[in-house]
Design brief:
The chain has helices at 18-22, 39-49, 73-85, 90-100, 105-114, 122-137, 140-149, 152-162; strands spanning 12-17, 28-31, 56-62, 115-119, 163-167, 173-177. The chain is α+β, with helices and mostly antiparallel strands and 178 residues long. It has 2 domains: 12-85, Ubiquitin-like (UB roll); 118-177, no CATH class. The strands form 2 sheets. It has a 3-stranded antiparallel β-sheet with strand order 2-1-3. Strands 4-6-5 form a 3-stranded antiparallel β-sheet, with helices on both faces.
Length: 178
Amino acid sequence: MEKLKQKETKGGVYFANLEAYNQGRLVGGWLYPLQYETLNGFLEAIKQITRGADEIAVHDYDDFPNMGEYPCHEELYLLAHAIDQSHIDDEILIKYMENQHDYSSDLVQEAEDSFICRADSLKEFAEEQADELINCTVNKEAQQFVFNYFDYEAYESDLNHDYLILELDNYDVAIFNY
């Protein structure tokens, strides 16, 4: 059996022996893909925890995207490692995947490529974007006039259609290019 990595236990997945479950017995347990150096080690751990079951189901996820009851175990492992290696916060990546209705490790790269920022609100993001645009394009003498009469709400509304805006659990938003 592969030696477990000393890593925090996040991204847990509960694997169950489906035959035993259907007979009223619980055979299975929690595994954390990040604790395994190799895919083979992870697959071996699944075999051991489910006692070599022919049919394996996932009954729960903890701090991990819900990939359903019968995910590809290799993709689950690859996704856990891709999320761990990403510079984007796990919550943001998971929300992005939920929005795309896809949980592949390739989607992590897509999210990284299109991620703009995390902001307190779309309104805050729109105001910062507008102020920067005004500062860069309007001459100094006219800037105060433009700041006074610029329609920030309309600009925010436009940005809401130009970007993918995902609400996070703490009421912040994550903003992505389409």
